[in-house]
Each structure stands twice: as C-alpha cells, then as structure tokens.
Amino acid sequence: MAAIWKKSVNLDDINANRKDTLVEHLGIEVVEVGDDYIKASMPVDKRTHQPMGLLHGGASIALAETMGSIAAYLTVDDGYSCVGLEINGNHIRSVTEGFVYATARPVHLGRSTQVWDIRIQDEQDRNVCISRLTMAILSPRK
Description:
Strand 5 and strand 6 form a beta hairpin. The protein has a 6-stranded antiparallel beta sheet. The longest helix has 19 residues. By secondary structure, the protein is α+β, with helices and mostly antiparallel strands.
C-alpha cells in the first residue's frame, strides 16, 4: 500500500507544532506514523482527569480531534487547510492513570471533506473511546 501522506511525516517536526497550545498542555505527542495511520499518546493525569479521577471525556475528544486534524493536514496539497466540521465520541471504558493512545485512520479522503476514525485505547489495547471526525478541506486563498 502506498502512503497517503502528501507532506513530511517527520515526528520531530509534527510534535514541534504543539508548542504553547492545548496539545502541549495535555501532553499529547505523536509517536508513530504508518502508511495510512497516525498514532499519539496522551497521559492520564491531573491535566486530563475529571473530578472523580477518571480520564475526562473532553480530553479524549481533544485527543481525537488533534489526531484527525494532523492527519488531514498531512494528506492535502500545499496551500490547502483543514478545519473540523463535526466530531463525536463514544466513551467505552474509564482510565485512571498511565497513558492512552489514539490512532487515526481515514474513512473518506475527498476533495472537500474527509472523515477520520479515531480509536483511543489504554495500555492494554482496550478501547476507551471511539470517535469519528469530519474535516472540511479549504482551498488556497487567492
């Protein structure tokens, strides 16, 4: 299978873009890129807990949108940009500590929209959250 990426997938470069953002604050780090997926880790700690000490559902959605957005950006030609249109998430399992891992894979890579499936799993590869993200692809401004 040929890689779907149209831009450089250097992990250091990808992770450098998180400086001074929510992504950096939550500790999200891209850890792996395959031909048709991108994977990141996020700690489950005081930054990502809700008051009962569980992984906050909003943190999971932030992780999912981050991964889908990075993936979408890497698949479009130079000059194009990507913005989120809609995201949903089904929270399946609670996590109290350690790390979770999000893997984004394309469902649809169209000219004007993309749909991404993002699976968030715990350290034992159990599903924590399943998310679907729709992205709008914006043409270069003239």
